[in-house]
Amino acid sequence: MKIPILNPDSHSKIGWDILILILTIAITIIIPLIMVYHLPLSGFLLVFDILISLIFIADILIESHTAYSDQRELIRDKEKIMNRYMGMAFVTDLLAAFPFFMILSFFQNPLLLRIALLSNILRLLKLFRVKRTIGRIRNSKRLNPSFIRMSLLIFWILIAAHLISCAWMAIWEDPAALNPLNAESMYLRSFYWTVTTLTTIGYGDISPSTNLETIFVIIIELIGAGMYGFIIGNIANIIANIDIAKSQYQEKMEKVTTFLRYKNIPHDLKVKISDYYDYLWESRRGYDESSILQDLPKPLKTSVSLFLNRGIIQKVPIFKGANEEFIKEVILNLNPVVFTPGDYVVIKGEIGYEMYFISRGSVDVVSEDESIVYATLGAGSFFGEIALLLSAPRNATIKAKDYCDCYSLDKETFDQILVRFPEFAEKIREMAEKRRAETEEKQKKK
Amino acid sequence: MKIPILNPDSHSKIGWDILILILTIAITIIIPLIMVYHLPLSGFLLVFDILISLIFIADILIESHTAYSDQRELIRDKEKIMNRYMGMAFVTDLLAAFPFFMILSFFQNPLLLRIALLSNILRLLKLFRVKRTIGRIRNSKRLNPSFIRMSLLIFWILIAAHLISCAWMAIWEDPAALNPLNAESMYLRSFYWTVTTLTTIGYGDISPSTNLETIFVIIIELIGAGMYGFIIGNIANIIANIDIAKSQYQEKMEKVTTFLRYKNIPHDLKVKISDYYDYLWESRRGYDESSILQDLPKPLKTSVSLFLNRGIIQKVPIFKGANEEFIKEVILNLNPVVFTPGDYVVIKGEIGYEMYFISRGSVDVVSEDESIVYATLGAGSFFGEIALLLSAPRNATIKAKDYCDCYSLDKETFDQILVRFPEFAEKIREMAEKRRAETEEKQKKK
Amino acid sequence: MKIPILNPDSHSKIGWDILILILTIAITIIIPLIMVYHLPLSGFLLVFDILISLIFIADILIESHTAYSDQRELIRDKEKIMNRYMGMAFVTDLLAAFPFFMILSFFQNPLLLRIALLSNILRLLKLFRVKRTIGRIRNSKRLNPSFIRMSLLIFWILIAAHLISCAWMAIWEDPAALNPLNAESMYLRSFYWTVTTLTTIGYGDISPSTNLETIFVIIIELIGAGMYGFIIGNIANIIANIDIAKSQYQEKMEKVTTFLRYKNIPHDLKVKISDYYDYLWESRRGYDESSILQDLPKPLKTSVSLFLNRGIIQKVPIFKGANEEFIKEVILNLNPVVFTPGDYVVIKGEIGYEMYFISRGSVDVVSEDESIVYATLGAGSFFGEIALLLSAPRNATIKAKDYCDCYSLDKETFDQILVRFPEFAEKIREMAEKRRAETEEKQKKK
Amino acid sequence: MKIPILNPDSHSKIGWDILILILTIAITIIIPLIMVYHLPLSGFLLVFDILISLIFIADILIESHTAYSDQRELIRDKEKIMNRYMGMAFVTDLLAAFPFFMILSFFQNPLLLRIALLSNILRLLKLFRVKRTIGRIRNSKRLNPSFIRMSLLIFWILIAAHLISCAWMAIWEDPAALNPLNAESMYLRSFYWTVTTLTTIGYGDISPSTNLETIFVIIIELIGAGMYGFIIGNIANIIANIDIAKSQYQEKMEKVTTFLRYKNIPHDLKVKISDYYDYLWESRRGYDESSILQDLPKPLKTSVSLFLNRGIIQKVPIFKGANEEFIKEVILNLNPVVFTPGDYVVIKGEIGYEMYFISRGSVDVVSEDESIVYATLGAGSFFGEIALLLSAPRNATIKAKDYCDCYSLDKETFDQILVRFPEFAEKIREMAEKRRAETEEKQKKK
After folding, report:
1. pLDDT at B372
2. D277 and D310 together in one domain
3. What is the value of ipTM here, to two decimals?
4. What is the largest CA-CA distance in chain C?
5. Nearby residues of A441 by Cβ (< 8 Å), 6 or more positions away
6. pLDDT in tens, A252-287
7. Number of domains forming the structure of chain A
């Protein structure tokens, strides 16, 4: 029979993984109970045992035909897969799958039968595979890693509590007080004791009396204390990481407010600055665009920037006729700036060195005394493009109406880009010349 | 009836929110007690129940007419508000407000009556609104976020403890020891047990005996341990964040002292450096001005800088006649420097490249052998302005008298600014020429 | 009587502060015991009470004549001191000092006498001063802040435990089991119960039975759990801060080793790099000199750099005759570099652009085939100075013998400095000319 | 007898250290038991005691002849070693080695004999040496520091638990309940009590009754709570440090995804970016090569870079004939870049300014419409070298086939390097001239 190489991220493979995961959990719960209650492995349980063996054997076959990924590269070579499987999980998978009980029970030897019963514990080796399965499911579903980590923590704690409870039942001699308990109560009381101890609550209504019990309790307490410390450490770590963006932002704000207090900055300026930080937090969790994009490799950065700005750039008259490469360079050199409501973006008469593109929010073009609003420019608009041609004084005052996310492009950067596009630079120079002539004419008229 | 759209930050809306909050807490305390003690819903309690229903219905109306803010923008559009409310809190608000008891009790059917009693639990759904209300109150009052976070933690723990206590009362069978307890003692003992368990103290004087009790205790213990870990994690996180400025500063100091020890720096220099760091901490929590201002957008940065320095800049003779824009540029390019007592700011004969403005503290103008103090300059003074015109040697020694926060402006930066203000640059050049002539004349005289 | 203004850091003031601190602790221990055991305030205790009153009144006088420091500036103005004291600690100090008992006991009225006894609690208000006193002692003794923080934590816990124990004694009714206990045992058992509860151990051998006790225990448990969380949070924070240098260094190392593993770097290179990091850690806790010095203001930086390097700089022949300012500039522009054993610092024939000063360790001047060691240069030596004059090929190979801390000075920086010292630049140019002539002559000979 | 100076890292010295470590642990376990059980120091125990004395005396001799390392330098000077040993561990080592029992037991005086027995405790002073020994073993074996730290924590806790158990046994009066216990059970119960208390579980089945016991328990509880806090703090710290690379990486990813969500970036671009970060994590734990190498001193950096790139550089035709120094400079100025599958590395017709070397992954050389794949270049290939000679348009489109780790070398950097190698620069200029001629000819043909 020729089995094809499976893709580890395929739906059917993930499904199989989940089945194995559920079966592993089932046997982890059932097998210790069988052993503690000395349940006979017959009838339904025997069928279950045989079924488990068969499924686990099938799993070995499937695992040895599943491709694996090495640094984002999917290895589908059969020999490599085999070598890797042999070196990693094959032995435990085989021991977990081996039908010891079926084989040994043929001999009808009571000693062998006891060994056969004990051999069931080997099935629990399959627990080593839980982490891998979870890892695969996480990869294919893109689940929140903190959630996964928390769930796994709870899962392992419950598994550990179950195993400890079963062990405690096996060695617990509680003659006077609670006897005779039926099986369920016995397990319940044992699980109750385990949880009470592991959580360091320690009611003390169940406590060890024999030496064996005492030793067992000491070991569980030591494990429990470590485990509890581990849980608290993990929760503290998860909390610290959840809040990391927020706390970095608060740290920044605290710095600024301390500084402002120290310098006796007037109240309204303080409120304005504090509102600005609130806006940064609400609109982008305090992150700053340029630092985020600079980590990406250039092609990805270009893709993101193009997506964000191509439309607006192509509308600018002076960029008409520029080729694709030029537009790309311009977009990669845009500089994000934020204006808070009431900020002067451009003041009439000032000499301008940059043009602006509005990405979000709106600005008012106002008269010098701010009494008349000539126009309101919204997202997708641009202004100040003359500054890229010649350093003339601004011919209008522009004031932010609300919080504005803009991009600026300054003359210096623009000139540097032009150097690399000589034909287009020529065209721009002509445009500037024409503009200058117009401006001079206007000034003469005045 | 036409209801106007309400502002979520208005005083009356916040007042209503607080009323709802208090009522929510009240019903969270009262309803579980009613159910555990099987109190008849008649008389005062019935009035209370009807009142709650009415107020909660009013709340639905008010909520569906309250504007909401989306990234600092207040959305007042009725349809959008409706859609948002429907998609978020409407169902829970409706279930919490619905007068099940009143309606079902009409039928006089004992089964329906029991359902009616149970339906009271639905009122607790209003608890989901606490977070939102607290958020709104925080926004309008600018409360300390760590304090809010701590208070909410305590609030939820007490609510949880109350609910757990009521549940424990309902299933607790304690026949021999403490019976018959009156209602208050019963609740007290139950609350005592809950707190003892949740804090992992676990005296063990009250412990489960029936299976139901055991299961309940296991669940509470698991929740309690998680909750306790969560509390400790939160407290650890809050402590870490409170001290973050201090610990960053201590880290910096530790670096420096390690380095100084390694290099066998003499003791008095070490004390001087350590005092300098103490000063930084006491005066500005170790933060450095330029790094704080650089995060702000340019208009805000300009406002802050202008507030801090305009007065002093305009006093400088060589800046007389400079226009507004020029002054702004100068101010944005000031560089904060700190001098410790005894530091030489300027030494006679050295060639100077920067001028200084004193923002805090004072300096002495001393003779070359430091025996004579010609003058003491305090906050608001400036010196070394000649350096911006020509690179002549300093004509006096200036020594810091105490810790001085100064701003320096260096010739290079100044020249770069002048490039953008050609008319003013011309004026400055003349001044420099004149100065040079004077200096040369002086030197000839000597 | 005219009291002079005291210096808060003077030895006698610190001594007085310590006395008040000890008395505060004493009354915090004694007064609750007096109240719980209903000890009569007569004899020795009465003398003690009067003494405390007198000392605390004296303390008010002293405090109101102690200068205080505001941002490193000592405020000695009497009115300012008074205003500050009135606004801060005066009321609590007065209440703590007021001899209520003495005054009220004159009236011989049993009710007033009881009030007088209760008024003793007001003395505990002095506890609010502990933090201030500790702060002062710390400032004058420069104690380790982590140690102080830990000690204060322990101090407050013990004080809290004592107060809780006394309160528990007052309300504890333990008729059957442990009665009649003598006073010491009673306190001991109570303190034992407090500690057992606060540490969340909760043996349960002492547990509440009356409603009052139950309420008290609930409150203590809630406080205790919070306190315990606070302690753990603090310890975790202190541990994190103690290890911050180490963990930053380990983080760096981990980065590097991960990278080396990923790139399959040969083993000996890996060991060399790992040894280099060990050296950095052992010699300077992983800190890097230039980043440390750059935080200091220029005069302090100059002082440190001058201390480290003046001697060696003045020995260099080409710097002979340079003035003080020039030497300072050179020193401020030295660049620290580390060489690991076997590194080639300079290779014969390479064109050199920097000179080196050895600050620690030694280098070998070797022949081209490394068979002959011409010389060994130790700390305080320098080499490669010709590179500052002209870009000639190196005339020897120099190899680090052990870990070498060096400073390099490159030609570019040197030329920039020269620009500011035109006369000296002239001298250097002549030297270079002469050198070039010599070299050319040599090459012609060859 | 002349003892040679030993190397502290030699195998035999480490072996001896381990022997001493094991003996120290043994006596720490045995001596308290001897004292609690009042075992007679005769027979086997006497031999053991004498042996310990002899070995510890030998250890003093060995220690005083072991070189020590001071900042990576091995100090072998006998006098220095002696001074250092005298000032550090000699006194404790001597007290631990001194055969008090043997000497005092000669006198047959019962008082002296008791003192002799008590003096055994001095042997425990050897515990102070454990840290040093572990430090040495760690240095020679390069063990994981987190593992060492965890193991030491467990080791000290177990030692502390043992000592506390023995002390509790000595003062514990438990007349009614558990008497008469045999020695082993006694110790077991005592150890059980210690662990139950230190882990804050506190069953309460064993609790103090006498005053002495109560005081002892209070002290142990206070220590235990602190210890437990310390353990949790440590575990939390270790967890935080283990995950530091991961959490920094997650933080980065979170920033990017927040930004992408805010800007409504299309889904496929988001997946591409998220995959890119996954690749960075899987291939290099998110670290970035240039930032890692920049921390290394230049010779080490050169060694690593040469190892990584020499082969590939020498294959480039235009570098043929370049000397060693030139190649080094080029390698140090390579800039690592990553391309994700499908990225355009070079687009036909674009003007190129850099050449690329492939270090890992492969790229396709495709026709303008991407229909034909001319060639696939794998690791060790390079392309775009013409861009270093002249700024001609690219003559092919090159597209990343899978994740590609490349190095780029841009024309500007290349030109800067050439300045320092004038002869080679001449050669390169000729090559460029020839190339230009060829290109122009080609274009004429077209």
Report:
1. 85
2. no
3. 0.80
4. 119
5. none
6. 777 777 777 777 788 888 888 888 887 887 777 666
7. 3
